[in-house]
Amino acid sequence: MCSSHHHRTTAQERDLEFQFPHVHRLPAGQSPGEQDGDPAAADGLDAAALKRARAEKIGRYVAMFLMPLLMVSMLVGGYLAAMHAPAPNDMPIAVAGTAQQASAFADAFEAADPEAVDVRVTGSAGDARELVMDREVAGAVVLADGTATLYTAGAAGASQAGSVTALVAPQVLAQGLALQSEDLAPLPENDSAGLGAMFMTTALMLAGYMPLSLMLSNSPELMRFRRFVPLLAGWSALIAALVWTVVGPVMGVVEGHAAAVLGICALSVFAVGSVQLLLTRIFGPMAVLVGMLFLMVLGVPASNMSMSVHTLPELYPFLHSFLPAAATGESLRSVLFFDGNGVGRHLLVLAIGAAASLLLTLCLDALKRRRKPDAAPPAINVASLHGGPRPSAAAGAMSHWPGSRWPWSR
Predict the structure, then answer these.
(1) How far apart are CA 322 and CA 107, in angstroms?
(2) What is residue 245's predicted lDDT score, i.e. its pLDDT?
(3) CATH architecture of 91-186
(4) Over the stretch 323-360, which tens digit does the pLDDT of each residue have?
(5) Parallel, antiparallel, or unpaired: how do β-strands 91-96 and 139-144 relate?
(6) Distance (Å, rounded) from C-alpha 129 to C-alpha 133?
(7) For the whole model, what pTM was predicted?
(8) Which residues touch 402 (CB under 8 Å, ≥6 apart)?
(9) Where exactly are the structural domains of the chain?
């Protein structure tokens, strides 16, 4: 009977230690009340602690299924809401020709569907083609001698080129013009669908924000700013090398541009990790959902990689101007298909995002230290990856000593 009671007590103690790893343990067999000479108080404290432990255990089980449920709901709902019914929305199209002919064509084009297109008249055919190559417009129509030549850039998105053709062709034929088409930037044979940059972007977003969710629960000391920044820099370089190796030498999807692609990949992961660090400082463990919302649920449709943002709701062209997924994807496109044309402004978005996030993180850390100079760090709630107890080091023991400061709080 005593042996059974001893085993139950030991199991309860282990459960409490797992639920509250930051609580100072008393000597074996001694309860809080006994330390003060009050057995009745000891029984009350033990019962309250066990009740709290059971409640937290149930909460953990609920969260274990609730988090994936929310993630799946966000991904499915977000992607379908954005992309289930694509329709042209202010699709930018340039028109060139004689002043009278170009103006008449542009007026008729916009009158046919004012919300679908945003037509701009250019001075010459060369200017129109340059706008296409700069990706300032989705397509350009050059009018001359009873013929309308439609210029697109397949490398800027195959779906976008198809949408432009579907918009322009009926208007050209309605005016009795012959239609010709030319792709100014066709996709290469080794990536004829343009999927390389899209999947690289998705992988880089995941690599930037996912590790922080495990780091917060398993090794919160690594979240200290002075440790995290160099760690993130090394992680960014590693992921960049891995992504380049897979899409380049291994699969042959990307040929050449090694230095540029490596740099873009590293900067992308560093920028996303910096943003996620800031979100983690603000939202704690829930930052993984916030990060998924902005980086994946909204970021992937707004990236302009799978579908043109000009065929999505009005929110997405706006998000395309500053979300890291869009900046990463467009940077890769610029280097791979457009000789680096336009890459600067997208790299600037990533650089500013990383710098601003790190600066704000420093400000938040300083504010928290001022308000609570002796605040304890987040509890480690992933006890061990191999199933046993975490090893007890001298530094770890000292960190639990009454009055000591946590190593990562300095």
Answers:
(1) 32
(2) 95
(3) 3-Layer(aba) Sandwich (3.40)
(4) 999 999 999 999 999 999 989 999 999 999 999 999 99
(5) parallel
(6) 6
(7) 0.78
(8) 24
(9) 32-84, 91-186, 191-399
